[in-house]
Amino acid sequence: MEQEILNRLQTQDELLQKIYISSEKTRKYFLWTFYATVALFVLPLVGLMIAIPALMSTLSGAYGL
What are the TM regions of this chain, as residue ranges (predicted)? Predict the structure, then answer.
């Protein structure tokens, strides 16, 4: 009886290790997805915040507004 309980505990421990490894891979995947989102969405928005005022200044100077 005691050996059966020990075997079950060992099996559960192995499964928990596999779940932990899988969850760490998922966490890293989400982290890199977040980095890609920042690089492909937020950085161009910051660039537009800088470029639009410069463009507006150039256009207003060209048309004498």
Answer: 29-56
